[in-house]
């Protein structure tokens, strides 16, 4: 399998001329929802779907518990989650307060398994004229079929 991209015209606002350039953008074939993910893990891991869902729900609750106290949470080769935020810069130390904080976010740093995968996967341009842009059917019986037209 390969990651696919489409070419899009983009206007860059950082230069004075507002130049239009062409850039490659990743093409997302399908969004895998929680149910599809549980079905796939069930098929690959030979574990009942209810157990998979319970474990993932427990994982999410545990991530939330630890990140609420500011902990970084490692999931081994999968990666690490950590809470973070941005801050508006101030001229004086005393001016930095919770009021200057913004953009609360969770940062995910992939582990070795995912880093290796993304570095080794091939990348291809999506041929919008071809009928050969199909997604293999999932084990859960959902999400298969022809890719949507990226020009719509």
Could you characterize what this model shows?
The chain is α+β, with helices and mostly antiparallel strands and 152 residues long. Helix content is 27%, strand content 30%. It has helices spanning 34-45, 49-68, 112-120; strands at residues 2-11, 20-26, 73-74, 79-87, 101-110, 122-125, 134-135, 145-146. A three-stranded mixed beta sheet has the order 2-1-6, with no helix packed on it. It has a three-stranded antiparallel beta sheet with strand order 3-4-5. A two-stranded antiparallel ribbon has the order 7-8. α1 packs across α2 (49-68). The two termini are 24 Å apart.
Structure at a glance:
This protein is α+β, with helices and mostly antiparallel strands and 152 residues long.
User: What percent strand?
Assistant: 25-35%
Class derived from helix and strand content: alpha+beta
**Overall helicity:** 25-40%
Radius of gyration: 21 Å
Q: Which stretches of 5+ consecutive residues score pLDDT under 50?
A: 137-152
Overall shape: it is: flat
Taking the sheet with the most strands, its summary is:
3 strands, mixed
**What is the first-to-last residue Cα distance?**
24 Å
Give the strand order, joined by hyphens, for the main sheet: 2-1-6
Q: H/E series, N to C?
A: EEHHEEEHEEE
Keywords:
disordered C terminus, three-stranded antiparallel β-sheet, flat, 30% strand, three-stranded mixed β-sheet, alpha+beta, 152 residues
List the helices and strands and how they pair.
Elements: E1 2-11, E2 20-26, H1 34-45, H2 49-68, E3 73-74, E4 79-87, E5 101-110, H3 112-120, E6 122-125, E7 134-135, E8 145-146
Parallel strand pairs: 1-6
Antiparallel strand pairs: 1-2, 3-4, 4-5, 7-8
Helix pairs in contact: 1-2
